[in-house]
Each structure stands twice: as structure tokens, then as C-alpha cells.
Amino acid sequence: MTMSPGDKLMNARCRLMTMEPWYGHIAMSMTWVAVPVGEALKTMGVRIVNGGEIQCLYHPPFVEKLSLEELYAVVQHEIEHVVRLHCVRNDSRHPTAWNIAADMCVNGLKSRPRIGYRDSTTNRMIIPHMDEIVWIPEDWPENETTECYYEMILKKGRPDGFWGDTGTNNRGETVRQGFGRTLDDHDVWRETDVSMDEARQVVRDLVHHATEKCPGTAPGHLSEAINDLNRPRVNWRQLLHHYLGKHLGNRRVTFSRRNRRQDQFGMPGISRRAAATVNVIVDTSGSISSEILKQFFAEIECISHRAKTRVLQWDHAFQGWSVYRRGCWKGMAIHGRGGTDMAAPLRWLLDNRKIADAQVMLTDGFCNYLKKNEVQFPMITVITPGGGTEPQYGHVVRMK
Questions:
Q1: Is 377 exposed, middle or buried (CB count within 10 Å of its CB: 0-12, 13-18, 19+)?
Q2: In whole angstroms, what is the distance from residue 244 CA to residue 295 CA?
Q3: Could you read off the pLDDT of 307-331 as tens digits, one per residue?
Q4: Same structural domain for residues 246 and 198?
Q5: At what angle do helices 68-83 and 196-213 cross, to 10 degrees?
Q6: How far apart are CA 240 and CA 249, in angstroms?
Q7: Most confident option among 130-144, 279-293, 322-336
Q8: Residues 177, 83: one domain?
Q9: Which residues form the domain of 193?
């Protein structure tokens, strides 16, 4: 009995779950959509739509032509594009060159492929169209970013290089000159309707869930891409150093602790407690999505590694005040979700005499601010991508 394309895809995903469970869990969390015959899509492609649904569109005849093992490799290929956020990173780059660079990152070197089903009998990697698809050239570095490969392709002067582009070598043999053809359809990426930050949050949650379910099984070549999903978007070390100088960090000279090497009067010791204090005002109004709040707390976590941190939650009114310690985000309740008033929290800090060495406000900018003449203290305002207005004081950072 012949399997339907949908059943064949399910079998490939089940095999992934058995043999490489990290990939398998991600594959099972994605939505798989058959595209009617006759539409533009002829292979397979991924997109993030409807506020965070990760869809993989597939052309049924394409699935029918592949063996189960070849389909296994293509599903891996799509998952790698998702984890690397390729569908939201193109910007205004040359589309063909970007597509080739993205597949280089996903496929790796032909001599050391990153995707594929390993045949237990022959120990050979099974990958569809293995001699035709894009690989990292053997004389190029193996672990660079998509952006780096993109620049290298442009320097070669071959942004439109593709499979079928041939020439003659010095022995008179006909050889391929292009980089190869892409394994799937990258035009689908343009249908993604979420922002970079929204996509990052969705994929981060997906990866976190798969890693929790299958600890230690995430592929090593994706470690940098996975780490990048969790990085804060602001360089707090540099920014806070501008305001706090020598008081920044968790190591300082103090006479309140004895010197363990020279335990005698007049010799200062070292304190590991942060010398500076930072107040972080978090906008918890209704216009702040749960994804943005997660990013806000990634920033707060980074700040807490540099200074004593206190968090003030505010929408149109006071919603909470607490000391923030590393890892507090795991159990911190968020209050508010109403209107927006970002002048009031600063007045609250002034009225309650809680102004710190630096104040940080995390907001989407769709709010009012305190008047410039009322702000006589260090102030940093961080505004989300596509956010509203900026205050007329302090240092303003717009997340990219």
C-alpha cells in the first residue's frame, strides 16, 4: 500500500524522533501544510505566521519522489533554517546570494554534512541531490555565520551562481562553477508576518522545549545559533560602564572585608558584591506582548550580572517593586496590562527617595515621559523595535 505524502512526512518525523530526538521534537511542534498542485511551490519551505505559528509548506509530488531517508534529511534542513532565523534575517540583501549562504550554514561541508540519514550498513549519509546542492566550499572556513558567507559570495563576484553554471578546468574537463542549487524553496520566507524579535522569542521557546525534553541531544554545530537566541539585545557592559565607571561589576576593593593574603591592619580586601545599584522600570502595559516581556527580562538578567538591580513594574499605576537577583525571571509575576504612564514611575522613585546610580526604562515608546527639567539623574531608555517616541533626556537605545 502506497503512503500518502502526509503519512510519509509523519514517518520521517517519527524516525527523527527515534534517532535524533531534538530534531524530532521540533519537527512535531511545527505545522505541516500541503500546497495544492499547480501553485508556485515545488519543493518545501518554512515561514512564521499568525503571530508565531511555524509552518512548513510542502509540495506533495516532491515528497512522493523522495525516499523516507531523503525526506528525513530535508526535514532536518527546514528545522535548521528555523533555528537560524533565516526567514527574518535577509533584510535588503541580494536574495540569491543570501539563499546560497543560508544553505551553506545548514548543509555544511560535503565531506562533513550537517544533515542527512546515516545508513547503518554502508555508513553513508543519504541526502537528496547530494552532488547538486549547495555546500560550503572545502577551502572556506567551516563555522562562519550566514552573513559572513554572504559577504564571501559577493567578493567572489558570483551572487547568481547556481547549479548548471559550468566551465572548463585546466585539464579541459567540464566542471561546475556555481555554488550549487538550494534544496528547498526560500521564497516562502517572504510570507513570514512576524518581526525579528517575535520570531526570536517563538524559536527560543521551541528550542528551549526541545532541549528540556531531550537534554544533551542538540547538534553541536547549532550551539552558537541557539546561544544567540538567548542573548540580550543591548550591550549593558559598555552602556552601564559609561554611567557607573569603576563602581560597575561584582569585584571591588573594600575595608569591610579582610585581605586573605596579607591579613593585617590597613590592608583592604575584595568584595564580590556589586558596588552600583540600577533601577529598572518595566513597562507592563497592554501594548507590551508576552514575547517583548521575555526580552525585557533577558535584558534585566544581564544587568543583574553587573549591578544590584531593583525592578519597578508600571503601566498606568504602580504594579510592584522588588529586588531582582539572578534567575528571578523564572518565578516573577507580571502585573498590570492596562494603560501607559511612564512619567509616573520616575516621580514615584523621586517621591520615595529611591533614585539609584542609574535608572533604566524598558518600554515600547507609546507613552508619555517626564519633562526634561525634572530629570536630574542618570537615565537610560530602551525602546522596542518599531516603538514610539523618545524622551528628551538621558541616553536612548532602540533595539534592532
A1: middle
A2: 23
A3: 889 999 998 889 999 999 887 877 7
A4: no
A5: 130
A6: 10
A7: 130-144
A8: yes
A9: 5-228
